[in-house]
Amino acid sequence: MKNFVNNFYKNQALFYKIFLFIVTAFLIVYLLPKGGKFKYEITKGKPWQYENLYAPFDFAILKSDAEIVKEKLQINTNHIPYYTVNGNVLDQVKSKVPEQLKKTFTDSILKRKGRLLSDFIEKALDDIYEYGVLLEAKPGDVNKLVYLKRGNEAFEVNYDKLLLQDEIRPYLNVQINQSSLSSLKPELLEFFYNTIKPNVTYDAKLTQKELDSKLGSISYTRGSIERGTIIISKGEIVEGETLDILTSLKSEYESQVWSDSSYNWILFGYSILVCLALLMLLLFIRRNRRDIFDNNVKVSFIFFNIFLMVFLTTLVVNFEAKYVYIVPLCILPLTLKAFFDSRLGLFTHVITVLILGFVVPNSYEYMFLQIIAGIVTILTVSELYKRANLFISVGQITFIYILVYFAFTIIQEGNIQDLNSEMFLTFILGGLATLFVQPLIYIYEKLFGLVSDMSLLELSDTNSKLLKELAEKAPGTFHHSLNVANLAEAAANEIGANAMLARVGALYHDIGKMENPTYFSENQTSSVNSHDELSPAESAEVIIDHVIHGIEIARKNNLPDRVIDFIRTHHGTSLVYFFYMKEKEMNDKVSTLDFRYPGPIPFSKETAILMMCDSVEAASKSLKEPTAAKIDDFVERIINKQMDEAQFLNANITFKEIQLIKKILKQKLKNIFHLRIEYPE
């Protein structure tokens, strides 16, 4: 049991990675669609590259979206609306006729023409209410058939049979003029105006119910294919009816309800593929980015970003697949490049896109487009902390999306008339969403304790509290750090390393000298040397301790680990040579271990650059009457000595890059010492 516990603690980082791997794979497989995956890629307008395909089961041919839309439009256009007749209105109107007659006509007129008036009014009301009176017209129903509903019965009539209130007066004018009561026209018009009420209303609820019923009864299929029927032969062009049948087969295959056994096999297959993809990523990190592999926080960060992209894409596809390009997938390589490097960013992006191929429709087109966009992202964004660079890169990414979509449409459709303008808007929205990378990077820095170039830019401000304190307590060291920062930035730019990281590391690498500034020559302003009172061993200890003090000050001021690495490694395991030789003069048996920095040696290009620049800049102060030849020899001698001591063994830096750094340092030192051609007097 004790051995098990010891082994667990010894290998807990490995166990954590295994746990993280399993959890990430499980979550991704959980999100993937659980239907079967159609094993053929259907490419419109291209020859069928596979063997002859026969129907594996009976299935219906699905109608295209355009056909469905056309049918729905036709149903909406031809749909007959419903109008309801209120049967009580006519009875109420007729019951008020006697009373209204007395109010409108005099007694003498009623005595002379009462019977005639009653007959005319009754006939007119019957004619007016034969179909009904509408309160107001419903746009779109003119010259159409409508259903007129009386009680539980409904019958078709022409819409123009219904009278509007505005049409009653012209109708009555004609009827009155043709009768023997034309002399009483004003009184009759007043009578009908006060008597007639609308009795027909548009029945929106019933009309919509009938419309929904018709729309719901639309068949989404047309015809069927029997099992064993040949669908397409090898070499046949995928188009027209054949394309519709293949699409229907794919849809039917992927939507089948699988048995428990089949479902489990599908899960097993997905698990193998997802685990394989994630394993390739882990092996890549282990082989090429060992420092990241050993840091569980960084590995967790990478896996979290992969899962986040799969989750967002699945969410959008489940909502509406055509909006899949709104998901700003290029944020992934941008983010990883900001925290790590381009190569890891691109590799992770490709792995993520391969996994997303299981989720999205038209997977080949999607993967091709996203991989190209990822490559463009990596190649174009050089300095993410510069906002202009990000906007330019987003514009280029959006352009690539549109260009590739344009090319695929031409290949598939053979023309540009079928370009979907909505897709262009989707690409633009996806590009704009990529701008969210800057606030996202800030959030990640707080959540995972990582450092991006944007944070490094803030740290490079010489007005920061810590650098101002350095300038006040150790002005010579501060000036030396500025010079080293300039040299390191130039050298990093020359070999394609992270120039901002090198500059910030150089600015802070000697902050430990604030503890005992007068023990370092650049801060000594008088002829008194503080080391005169110490033995060589004690002096060496003070000099070496500035690394330890620097780490302590950096941690106290919450400097990121990436910056602290420069403090730890800028002297590597080199020897404090001056005091070692002084001690050796007094004691032949002196050990070099007492005069050697504890290390570690540089383990990145940037930390190696700092070691070279720091040594060259510090030693350059001792040059007397410098010439171009002296400077060349001086730089060669210092850096070659560091190489002989194997200080760059872990730095992943090549001989060619070291030669380029030497060239830059020689150039910069010549500029610092203002070496010019000597002209004759």
Describe the structure.
- Keywords: Membrane, Transmembrane, Transmembrane helix.
- InterPro entries: HD/PDEase_dom, HD_domain, HDIG_dom, Metal-dep_PHydrolase_7TM_extra, Metal-dep_PHydrolase_7TM_intra, PgpH_phosphodiesterase.
- It comes from Gillisia hiemivivida.
- Residues 473-628 form the HD/PDEase domain.
- The structure is a single chain.
- The chain is mainly alpha-helical and 681 residues long.
- The chain folds into three domains: 1-35 and 260-446, no CATH class; 77-215, no CATH class; 453-673, Hypothetical protein af1432 (Orthogonal Bundle).
- The chain is 62% helix and 5% strand.
- The chain is built from 29 helices and ten strands.
- The protein has helices spanning 2-10, 12-31, 65-78, 88-95, 97-104, 107-128, 165-178, 185-195, 204-216, 240-255, 260-288, 290-293, 296-319, 331-339, 342-356, 363-380, 387-413, 421-434, 437-448, 453-459, 465-473, 475-495, 499-508, 536-556, 561-569, 577-586, 605-620, 628-644, 655-672; strands at residues 53-54, 59-62, 82-85, 133-134, 145-150, 153-158, 163-164, 200-202, 221-225, 230-232.
- The protein has a four-stranded mixed sheet. The protein has a two-stranded antiparallel sheet with strand order 1-10. It has a two-stranded antiparallel sheet with strand order 2-9.
- A hairpin with a 2-residue loop joins strand 5 and strand 6.
- Helix 14 (331-339) runs antiparallel to helix 15, helix 24 (536-556) runs antiparallel to helix 25 (561-569) and helix 24 (536-556) packs antiparallel against helix 26 (577-586).
- The chain is elongated and about 155 Å long.
- The model has no long low-confidence stretch (mean pLDDT 82).
